[in-house]
Amino acid sequence: MNRKTDNNFVGTQTIMVTAQISLNPALIARVLSALAIILIFASSAAMLTDYLTGHSSVLIRKLVKFFYIDLELNAPAFFSMLLLLFAALLLAVIALLKSKQNASYKLQWAILSFGFLVMAFDETVAVHERLIEPMRAILGEANLGVLYYAWVVPAIVLVLFLALFFVKFWLRLPAKTRLYFLIAASLYIGAAIGLELAEGKHSEIYGMENLTYITLATVEEGLEMAGIIVFIWALLGYIADTYKEVQLRFDNFVGDT
Q1: Among candidates 64, 67, 42, which has minimal Cα distance to 53?
Q2: Where are the alpha helices (DSSP H) in 103-148?
Q3: Which label site among 8, 13, 94, 169 has the fewest CB atoms less than 10 Å from its CB?
Q4: Taking residues 246-256, what's their average pLDDT?
Q5: Which residues contact 87 (CB under 8 A, 6 or more apart)?
Q6: pTM score, whole prediction
C-alpha cells in the first residue's frame, strides 16, 4: 500500500512516498526450499544419467555442466549466491535499524552482513579453492587424507575465531533466533567443512568420477543450501518479532515549471 502526501512551497513541491511490503517468513522459506530441492533433483538426475550412459551423450554433458551442484557458474551456484546475498541484505537492514536505535551489537550485525557478501562472491569464483595448493605445499603433497582439500585448515581456524568473537552476541539473541542460528551454522559449517573432509579423503584415493563422491558432494551442497535457508528464515522471523513493521520512505524534491 502506498501513501502520498503533497506539500506545496513557493516554486517547489515535495512528494513523499511510503512503501509497505508484506513478507511471510515461513512462505519465503518454503519457496526457497522448493527451489533448492528442484535444483538438487535436477543435478542428481543429470549426474546419474551421465554416469549410467558412460559420459557418451553431448546433451547430457551440457545438462551436467548447467545443473551439477558441485560446479561453478551454473544454476545451483547462482541460486546459492542469491541466497547468500539475500542473507547479507537482511543482515544489513538489521544493522541499519540497530544503528538508528544506537543499539548494542550493531557492529556484529554489520560484520555478519559483510561476511555473507564475501561468501556470495566466493560462491561465484571459489576463492577458497585457490588456497588448496599453497596449503598442500605447507602440509606436504602426499597422503593428506581428510586434509586433501587443504583449504579446510585455514577455514577451521577462521570458524573457531569467529565463534569466539560472536559468542556473546549469540547469547544475547532471543531464544528462538539463537536456536535457529545454531541449526543454520551447524548445517552449513558441518557440510562445508565436515563433509569436505570426507570428500577429500575419498577423492585422494578414488578420484571424483564415481557415485560415492558425487553423492557426498550433492549432500554437502544441499545441506549448505538448507543452512542458509534456515538462517534467512531466522532473520526474517527476528525482524518480524523485533520490529513488527519496517517502512521504506522516499522523498523526492521536485521544482515547479
Answers
A1: 64
A2: 106-125, 132-139
A3: 8
A4: 58
A5: 116, 228, 231, 232, 235
A6: 0.88
